[in-house]
Amino acid sequence: MSTQQEKLRPRKLLLPSANFGIVFDPEYQGFPSTTGWLKSLYEGEITFHNFVTPQFAIDTINCARLHVGALLDTTVENQRLFGYAEPYTWNEILAIFRRLYPDRNFMDDLVDAGRDLSTVTNERTAEVLRRFGKPGLTTLEESIKAATEQILSSKDKKCDSFF
Questions:
Q1: Which end of the chain is more exposed for a tag (fewer CB within 10 A), N or C?
Q2: Could you tell me if residue 103 is inside a domain?
Q3: Number of structural domains found in the chain
Q4: Is residue 42 part of a domain?
Q5: pTM, entire model
Q6: Is the pLDDT of residue 4 over 80?
């Protein structure tokens, strides 16, 4: 027999990491939260980057698909799904910017804050994504590219990040 605490415990738990990628509606929401971090770094603003330590990231579309997939997939029961595609540092993101936009000058690398060395079991996450039409996790570089292209194409609109 289940206890009251067991009855109240979530049966599906999704733990997403930092979301990078396109936003749903930049015209009305701007570039908030983690995509705002990219916008700020791209523009040379580092007001908060020293406080955000290295961690893992996931593409915004992958994260949305994972939420829907976990909800609809009846085989996801009493499980934790980690929405962790790959670790990142701000210097790695700056390196991606430099590769994608070689004609633009970016700030120097930040003081090395280390790297997230956590080991994450996300095979089940990849499996749920495959079941819902995504062959694998989007790479950090692909997510950064999509976000930056959206930010640059929205330059003339009011798309300020907020934190």
A1: N
A2: yes
A3: 1
A4: yes
A5: 0.84
A6: no
State which H helix or E strand residue 92 sits in: helix 90-100
In a domain, 71, yes or no: yes
Give residue 102's pLDDT band: very low, low, confident or very high (50, 70, 90): very high
Q: Is 41 exposed, middle or buried (0-12, 13-18, 19+ CB in 10 A)?
A: buried
Distance CA 104, CA 90 (A): 17
Name the percent of the chain lying above pLDDT 70: 90
What CATH number does residue 98 fall under?
Answer: 3.40.50.720
Does 161 have pLDDT greater than 50? no
**Which residue(s) pair with 15 in the sheet?**
82
Count the neighbouring beta carbons within 10 Å of the beta carbon of residue 153.
11
**pLDDT reported for residue 86:** 93
* Residue environment code for 113-138, b if the CB has 16+ CB neighbours within 10 A, otherwise e: eeebeeebebeebbebbeeeebeebb
Section 55-76 average pLDDT: 92
Tell me which residue range forms the domain holding 64: 11-153
111 lies in some domain: yes
- Burial string for 78-110 (b: 16+ CB within 10 Å, else e) reads eeebbbbbbbbbbbbbbebbeeeeeeeeeeeee
Q: At residue 159, what are phi and psi to the nearest 5 degrees?
A: -135, 55
> Which amino acid, 148?
T
